[in-house]
Request: fold
Amino acid sequence: MKKYLSLLLTLCLVLALTACGGVKEEPAKSEEPAKTEQPAEPAAEPVEITVFAAASMQESLNAAIEQYKVVAPEVTVVTTYDSSGTLLTQIKEGASCDLFISAAPKQINALDGSLKDNAEKNPDGLDVVIQDSRINLLENKVTLAVPEGNPAGIESFDQLADLLKGGDVALAIGNSDVPVGQYTQKIFTYYGIDEAAIASKLTYGSNVKEVTTQVSEAAVDCGIIYGTDAFSAGLTVVDSATAEMCGQVIYPAAVLNVGEQPEAAQAFLDYLCTADALACFEAVGFSPMV
Reply:
């Protein structure tokens, strides 16, 4: 009897296990293959370019250079600002320069090999400009600016001409070897003014910034400067010279073959022709020509 009960219990246990069944294990998920990371782009080699630019471009070109740091962080732009005549002299004397931006065509003409047979424009027959790089970048205005409050009551170039002939005004102008001074000489010629005859009423600056400072400090009654410099210095402009009075005020630019980085200089010049860069120049009163 005991044997029968033991067999019966064993049979019941087997049936119960069969009914419940075992828990099925999920098949192991296959692991995804590890993604292969792409090698990082090698950092661009640092490059330094030297730019000689007219003093009147200082504020706006510096702003464009700040923007260029985002576009080409590997490029360092080293600038020298002065009168275009002084910069031309430095280049002639052997200074290294990748890009030259002048306040008048005259200074770049003197370096342009395509004009070496023109003794008037390129008297030394120099061939420094890399051909096809030269462009007319910007246009400026020659203006008559006065100190704060305009104590002398200067209102126009016409009035200035009369006052100069009468010896009743103090005027600041640029030296004859700098573009702003050369534009002023054309204005004198337009009005029939003999510069030598009014020398006691004139003070000079070796670049447009020096002339601007004289006006800002009210050391003179007025000054003939670029509209962009008047804007940057917060000066009041009472009149602007017409093209008939002094011609167009064109700022040409060119890559030179006396620098170390002509390709990088050309890339920077190309950037200066973009809308983003030109906005920096327009903000102070330049007019783009590209």
